[in-house]
Structures are given as structure tokens and as C-alpha cells.
Amino acid sequence: xxxxxxxxxxxxxxxxxxxxxxxxxxxxxxxxxxxxxxxxxxxxxxxxxxxxxxxxxxxxxxxxxxxxxxxxxxxxxxxxxxxxxxxxxxxxxxxxxxxxxxxxxxxxxxxxxxxxxxxxxxxxxxxxxxxxxxxxxxxxxxxxxxxxxxxxxxxxxxxxxxxxxxxxxxxxxxxxxxxxxxxxxxxxxxxxxxxxxxxxxxxxxxxxxxxxxxxxxxxxxxxxxxxxxxxxxxxxxxxxxxxx
Length: 244
What we know:
Layout: H1 3-10, H2 18-21, E1 25-30, H3 35-49, E2 55-60, H4 74-91, E3 99-104, H5 113-130, E4 132-138, H6 145-161, E5 164-168, E6 188-192, H7 197-205, H8 226-231, E7 236-240
Helix pairs in contact: 3-4, 3-7, 4-7, 5-6
């Protein structure tokens, strides 16, 4: 199916209550600091308001966004991005105790092998300790290597623990409409986040290193593109039921 048809179908998925999407505690796997706010910010805020905050795991350190910056070398940028994610979580109502940074290398998250297995062991331990019943991972068609790796971790964790798995699109919203994807239908649901829309916006803004005004000595450094940001200026978040 072409990406444009899928994206249109995502916007028409049925709206469900939070308890129907995440009946227990969520485990949210975010490839980078900011993906948690972009893809699941409203759900995070809703879960916190409902008294069952999710466990949020940031998979990579985010330190590859400005590789040529001399003022912000990788160790310093890593600390900044952790601080930004912690502040974003606070704006969504999530205490820092529910936030974990795996610290895997940005743009090089493992897809298999010993490093992948070690990450999976840590995720399984978190899921068990926090009593998580639903995993949320990036959509498998998100066009980014770290998103794909994180999706694979979500699938492997689902199979190991036998708990539910849902997918959320991030970069998938920006795929060119004529792109053909190996996907025959869109199944899933949407969450109305109207009550948490401003909190989500403020959480996204907390990731200030990704907006281009803070790190100015790397002209080729990453900057959140307007088309991606505009995709999240809605009153709904999308959660897909994967066909495994």
C-alpha cells in the first residue's frame, strides 16, 4: 500500500479510551530523546493523570545529532539531551524515576547480536519490575535505523514476555505519499489528547537542542523539520496493532 493511503487511514482509525489502549502500565520505547514526546506525549500525560505513569526508556544517547560541533562534543550533548528528556517528562507529569536511559550509541542501535540481547535483558527487567502490560514501540516502517532497531526490540520483548505490543509512527508521517510500503492495511486506534495537547507541545519544545537555535557551530547538524512537527499538531495520537 502507498504511504499516503496509510497515513490517511491512520487519521481515520477509531478513537478509543486510554484504558482500552493501555489497560495496565505502558512501557514506552523511544529511540532518541524527543521521540517519547513526539509519538506518545499525550498518552504519557494521560497515563500520569490516571495515576499509572508509564515506564519510558530512551534507547540511544542522542549524541549524534550535531557531530561536527566543537562546543557540544558527544559527552556534553548526551548530558544535555538527557536533561531535555527529563524536563519534557516533567512537563507531561512524569517523575524522573519512571525514565530510563539505556545510553546506546545514537545512529548505531543494535539490530541483533550480543549488544541487542543485552539491551533486551535490561528492557525485560524494567518491564517486570514496573509491572508493564503493554509495550509501545516505533512503527516498523519509520525510516530511521534506530527506530527500526527499537521496533525489533519491542517485538523481541513482546515474544519473550507475552505482553501486548502497539506501534506509534514518528518519521512514518513524513514518508512521501507515493512510496510503496509492505503493509496491506492500517489497524489500530487513536487516543484523544485534547486535554493534554498543550502539555505535549511544551514537552516537545523542551528538546531545545533539536530546534537549531542552541547549537550553532554545526551547519549540517540535525534540526526537527517543520513537516514532522506539524504532524503532531493534532488532538490525537495514533497507536497501531502490528501484524506479526
